Amino acid sequence: MSTGADLRFVEKEAGEWYYEYQCYPYGQNEEYDVYGPFSSEDKAVDHCDDNHANAGGSWTIHYEGKTNKLSGKPERPRRRRSLW
Fold first, then answer.
1. Which among 12, 17, 47, 79 has most CB atoms closer than 10 A?
2. Is 42 helix (H, G, I), strand (E, B) or coil?
C-alpha cells in the first residue's frame, strides 16, 4: 500500500538533487520535509526508499538554466519502483 503523500524530486542546480516529502496528513497538509542535497536523482530516490513509506508516485522537476523552476509545472508524473 502507498501513503498517497505528494513526493517531488527537484534538481535545484545542475547535479544538485533534493526531494520534498509531504507531511502528514497526506493530501491535506501544505507542508513538506526537504532532504538533500544528493549528487543524482537515483541517490535521492534510494534515500527516500530507504527512509520513508511508499508514496505511490512522484514528480520530477529538472533544473533549467539560470532560474530555478521549483514553481514551474512538473515534467511528468513518474511511478517509483515498488518496494514490494
1. 17
2. helix
Strands 32-38 and 58-61: unpaired
Q: Give the residue numbers spanning the domain of 73.
A: 7-78
Alpha-carbon distance of 15 to 60, in angstroms, equals 14
- Give CA–CA dist 43/14, Å, rounded: 15
Using one digit for the tens of pLDDT, what is the confidence trace for 50-63? 999 999 889 999 88
Report, in this order, helix, strand and coil percent for the chain, each rounded to 5.
15, 35, 50
pTM score, whole prediction: 0.74
Rg (CA), the chain: 12
**Nearest of 70, 10, 84, 14 to residue 45 by alpha carbon:** 10
Give me the number of domains the chain comprises. 1
Strand partners, 35: 19
